[in-house]
Write a structure and sequence with these properties.
The structure is a homodimer.
Chain A (H helix, E strand, L loop, with lengths): L6 E5 L3 H13 L3 E5 L2 H11 L3 E5 L7 H9 L6 E5 L4 H10 L3 E4 L4 H22 L4 E4 L2 E4 L4 E4 L2 E3 L3 H11 L5 E3 H8 L8 H15 L9 E4 L3 E4 L3
Parallel strand pairs in A: 1-2, 1-3, 3-4, 4-5
Antiparallel strand pairs in A: 6-7, 7-8, 8-9, 10-12, 11-12
Helix pairs in contact in A: 2-3, 6-8
Chain A binds a DNA duplex (30 and 30 nucleotides) through helix 8.
DNA sequence: CGGCGCCTTGACGCCGTCTTGACGCTCCGG
DNA sequence: CCGGAGCGTCAAGACGGCGTCAAGGCGCCG
């Protein structure tokens, strides 16, 4: 839900500039990635999917604009341009290609950081509105982690806090077997990691609410001597 | 359905600048509104709900910043600042208050237009994801964040400032669970984020005004040990 | 200066939830 | 055939969150 430290990708050929941008960004609590040309920048953008890109348009291969276009093919992550070129035409072109902001060198670090904050704030709003809540669904069971809602055959099911936490933990790894210890650690904390009985009791309660026949579970499957698994098909 | 021509509100005291901004914007196909001070600007923003605001920070009453803050109380519409003052501190303050962009005079019209396009493009993405309606409605309850009004079965309900702020926070994320901490942060500020009792008391007061049966709430739902949720269906 | 409304703070009782323990079942190996 | 281990069920009790009420303080407006 909350991303504790957003990731910022810097695409910049001048090492000097990278060397003073990185600490400034890290000082704000961001994780920082670096690339020194367009190709590797695009690669890192797609492999790491950062939360924001700071892009120097004065790249040696000369077509940072191409990076904007390429990223925009599949993502709407914020892109802030920094460039030595301050011509109107350059700015207009970059912005119209999909860049979110444009600063001309030399620029103030404080201003850049403020614009980074503004851009991240906006994109967080988008994520919010999108409500792209990862809903897990098997059979007639749906689990919405973000909205904290569980429905069975389109009927809402009321779960106790602990029941939901337990079910959510299973839903985060659909189809995978979670050991007793893993569940205890995640739901109760490490102190209780030696009491599998806790899991059994609450699993029974969950089954009573979710399963038609508790003796032959459809969703909450027991993996004897190992743990439990949420059916994913 | 979609208004083909977005509305732009210009808040600017210098008539000369308005006189050259208006035709430029209209030339791009936008509808244009004008205000010449903060007060009327805020009024037009709430009555016409434009798609974007261009705000001159050098207003005579000197606190255009206040306009940003006031608008951000209830809307996330894009705000682009134009200002004669180019100090870092000014930019940082405006951006952190919620402004989307900041240009210093003199600026190029082409650049301004490009930044307007970029801002509108982004907010279109937001509206895409969420429904852009500023009024929230469930059952016989309606909440108008912009007008600051709440009605129940078409009857206006009078709420205290704090009650409204609390309800508004819930209405901004209908159906989602807001944790005690989230509500405390948003309504009381981070300093009180460890006093869930505050939320309970005021939630009880809200229920007394909004719910037919406070023991079985229709709108303000409790999520035990987690927080509260505003019903969205 | 007085009154009123609003927010805070504290106390209290209720009710749901979690834990704990006991018991019977099944499966499997000795 | 017997015995143990793992699992599911049930009930009882303790715990703590939640809602409610009332008192107190503060600011605002008349």
């Amino acid at each position: 839900m909350t991303d504790p430290s957003p990731t910022v990708l810097i695409v910049e050929d001048e090492r000097a500039i990278r060397r003073f941008l990185r600490p400034a960004l890290e000082g704000e609590g961001y994780r920082v990635l670096e690339a020194d040309d367009q190709r590797s920048g695009l690669g890192m953008a797609s492999s790491h999917t950062p939360d924001l890109i700071i892009l120097d348009l004065g790249l040696p291969d000369r077509d940072g604009l191409e990076l904007i276009r390429a990223v925009r093919e599949w993502s709407s992550m914020p892109i802030i341009i920094v460039s030595a070129r301050g011509q109107d035409a350059d700015k207009v072109k970059a912005l119209d290609l999909g860049a979110d902001d444009y600063l001309t060198k030399p620029f103030s670090v404080q201003e850049l950081l403020a614009r980074v904050r503004a851009a991240l704030r906006r994109s967080a709003a988008v994520r919010d509105a999108a409500d792209g809540s990862p809903v897990f669904a098997v059979g007639s069971l749906t689990i919405d982690l973000a909205k904290r809602r569980v429905t069975l055959a389109a009927e809402p099911v009321t779960l106790t806090p602990l029941e939901f936490k337990l079910l959510a933990e299973l839903a985060k790894h659909p189809g995978r077997v979670l050991t007793h210890k893993a569940l205890l650690d995640a739901v109760w904390g490490p102190s209780r990691s030696k009491e599998p009985h806790l899991v059994r009791v609450h699993m029974a309660n969950l089954r009573r609410k979710l399963e038609a026949d508790t003796t032959r579970p459809r969703y909450l499957l027991t993996e004897p001597t190992v743990g439990y698994r949420l059916a994913d098909a």
